[in-house]
Q: What sequence folds into this?
């Protein structure tokens, strides 16, 4: 945070043409009235606003997940379906502990460290447009839901969160909406969750049955506590329309995943 205020970053004018936007009240997406650049206003700053130009449809991601599971010798899973979330990331200029000059920081609190790592697979970006409701393709009798989450923290807050890890931010460059799928896997009548990115369908996180060692009572209690805390935080930070969905999603994914992490049945 101190780094950012010292260097007087952020811009209240269009980063593409330098025009001062009219009617700049409130946070959210907008277009520059002078040059048409897609912008996002957050915390008094105007950032370029980008979104992945192409992402995988739900059924392809589901097939990739099925392949992942097959490699783990999990073959008899039932239907696999999922929702597409465009999660907001700030692309920052600065320095990472590994010496990178730009990196991406998750701009919402999901309580899942695997989504917070600055590791996004490369994707072609285009100026932000709201994705079509059917953009993720068919799922069951309808289409897979597509949700675009607004940032719930400012660039300063996102920078402050990773400062202890050695990330130094000089300025935010863009707000990127990057696609992820939260897949529901039906396995022996139980629903389990897995996150995959929507560009390469890399498996970000899941818990599926791999004969975990029997956990102790304390481990079980801890595994139940953390998803509850994460869900509560997501509910508090997420924009109103998404709060409930996020809490549900995190319970679906977080509880079993954290349980799996603690029992070390699968890491990857
Ligand atoms: Zn402009």
A:
């Amino acid at each position: 945070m101190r780094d950012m205020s010292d260097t007087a970053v952020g811009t209240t004018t269009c980063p593409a043409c330098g025009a001062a936007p009219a009617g700049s009240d409130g946070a959210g997406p907008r277009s520059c009235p002078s040059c048409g650049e897609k912008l996002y206003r957050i915390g008094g700053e105007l950032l370029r606003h980008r979104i992945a130009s192409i992402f995988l449809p739900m059924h392809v991601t589901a097939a990739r997940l099925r392949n992942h599971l097959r490699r783990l010798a999990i073959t008899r899973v039932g239907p696999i379906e999922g929702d597409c979330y465009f999660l907001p990331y700030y692309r920052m200029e600065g320095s990472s502990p590994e010496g990178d000059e730009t990196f991406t920081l998750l701009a919402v609190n999901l309580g899942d460290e695997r989504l917070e790592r600055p590791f996004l697979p490369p994707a072609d970006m285009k100026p932000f447009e709201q994705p079509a409701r059917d953009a993720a393709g068919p799922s069951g009798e309808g289409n897979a839901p597509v949700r675009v989450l607004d940032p719930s923290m400012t660039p300063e807050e996102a920078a402050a969160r990773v400062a202890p890890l050695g990330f130094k931010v000089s300025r935010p460059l863009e707000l990127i909406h990057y696609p992820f799928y939260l897949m529901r896997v039906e396995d022996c009548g139980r629903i389990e969750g897995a996150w995959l990115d929507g560009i390469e369908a890399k498996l970000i996180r899941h818990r599926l049955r791999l004969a975990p060692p029997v956990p102790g009572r304390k481990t079980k209690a801890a595994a139940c506590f953390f998803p509850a805390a994460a869900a509560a935080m997501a509910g508090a930070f997420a924009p109103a329309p998404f709060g409930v969905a996020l809490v549900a999603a995190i319970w679906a994914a977080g509880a079993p995943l954290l349980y799996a992490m603690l029992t070390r049945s699968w890491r990857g």
